[in-house]
C-alpha cells in the first residue's frame, strides 16, 4: 500500500508528490498523458513573488519577464500595476517539476488513466480494472477532475482560446476590460509577451470567434505560430476534502476567479495538502486538516469574485469613463504598502470616486490589505 496516490502530474500534482516524497512517504504519481504539459493550456505568466511556492530554482523554462500589469479599457485608456512577472514555457516547466518529484523518490506512471477513486478507503481504480490502494489520495487531475467527480463535485468551467504570435519586446502584460468581449469573466482578453522568444500569448475567455473579434477590434498584429485553448474552472469547489481524498489546483477550482490564473493556487494548495497529509500519515492528527486551512489561506478569492461581479455590471461606456479617470496611473503593487498610494491617487483623481465605482475601489483597497498577489 502506498502512502499517497497523486492523480495528475501538472504543477500541482508534481509539487505535492515532491514535498511528500521528500518527507519520506511512499508516493505514486499517475497521469493519463504520455508527455506532461502538452498541449499547452496556459497564458504562462506568474508573479515572481509567487514563484517560491514551487521551491525550485529558475531554469531554462523562463521565456521572459515583465515589470507591469497594464489594464486596458475599451477606449484604450489604461493604468498599470507594478509587479515583476515571469513568463514560462509551460511544457518545459511541467516536465521540470515532474523530474524533481521523481528525483525526490516519487514513483511516476504516465499514460495511465484513472477511472475513479473511493475517497473513504483510498482505493484508486485504473482503466482496465487494476486498483491501487493508498492511505491518502490527492486529486490534481485538472478542471474536469475524475477525483472530484468521485467526490460528487463538478467544477464550473468556462472555455478559453489563445494563440501564440510574434511580438516585439515589451515590459508589461496586458488585461483588456471590454463588456462586448466578456461572455464569462471580468477581464475578457490578454496579451502576455515572451520577450526571450519574440512572441506573445494572445487569448480570451470564450471561443475562437471571440478571440478573433478581440484581435480584430484592437488591431493586434503578428504572425500566428500556435493555437491552443482549454477550460478554466471558475470558483472554488463546494468541498475540497472527503475522507482520505483532497483536491488541489484546478481539480478543486482553485484558480483566481478574476483572472483565471492557476499557477500560484496550484503550488500553494499542493504545499498545504502535503503538510496536512504528512501530519496525518505521521499520526499527529486523526484526520487530514486541509480544507479549513485552504479556505482561510485563500481569503482573497472572495474579493476576486466580488470584483468580477462589479465589473460585469459595468457597460462599455461606464468602463470608458472609469478608464479615463484612471488613465496613466501607476500603482506600486497590490499589497499593503500600496494602500496609501491608492487613497492618494483617488483624492487626486476625483473621477475615480464616483458612487458607481465605489464598490470596485473598496474591493481594491481590501485586496491591498489582504496582501495577496495571486
Q: What percentage of amino acids are in beta strands?
A: 25-35%
- So, CATH architecture of the domain at 1-44 and 89-155 and 235-298? 3-Layer(bba) Sandwich
Kindly provide the radius of gyration, computed on alpha-carbon positions and rounded to a whole number of angstroms.
21 Å
Q: What value does the average pLDDT take?
A: 88
Q: Sheet bearing the most strands, described? A: 9 strands, mixed
- What is the count of helical runs? 10
Q: What is the CATH class designation of the domain at 1-44 and 89-155 and 235-298?
A: Alpha Beta
In whole angstroms, the N-to-C terminal distance is 37 Å
> Quick one: how many beta strands?
17
Instruction: State the helical fraction.
Output: 25-40%
Global geometry: globular
Q: Could you list the spans in which at least 5 consecutive residues all have pLDDT below 50?
A: none
- According to CATH, what is the topology of the domain at 1-44 and 89-155 and 235-298? FAD/NAD(P)-binding domain
Q: What is the H level of CATH, i.e. the homologous superfamily of the domain at 1-44 and 89-155 and 235-298? A: FAD/NAD(P)-binding domain
- Derived from helix and strand composition plus strand pairing, the structural class reads alpha/beta
Order of helices and strands: EHEEEEHEEEEHEEEEHEEEHHHHEHH
What do these coordinates show?
The chain is α/β, with parallel strands linked by helices and 374 residues long. Among the domains are: 1-44 and 89-155 and 235-298, FAD/NAD(P)-binding domain, CATH 3.50.50; 301-370, no CATH class. It has helices at residues 11-22, 90-103, 146-150, 208-217, 263-281, 291-297, 300-312, 316-326, 339-348, 358-370, and strands at 2-7, 27-31, 45-47, 62-72, 78-88, 107-110, 114-118, 123-126, 131-139, 157-166, 172-176, 189-194, 199-205, 224-233, 241-242, 245-247, 330-331. Strands 3, 4, 5, 10, 11, 12, 13, 14 and 17 form a 9-stranded mixed β-sheet that branches. Strands 1, 2, 6, 7, 8, 9, 15 and 16 form an 8-stranded mixed β-sheet that branches. The protein is globular and about 60 Å long. The mean pLDDT is 88.
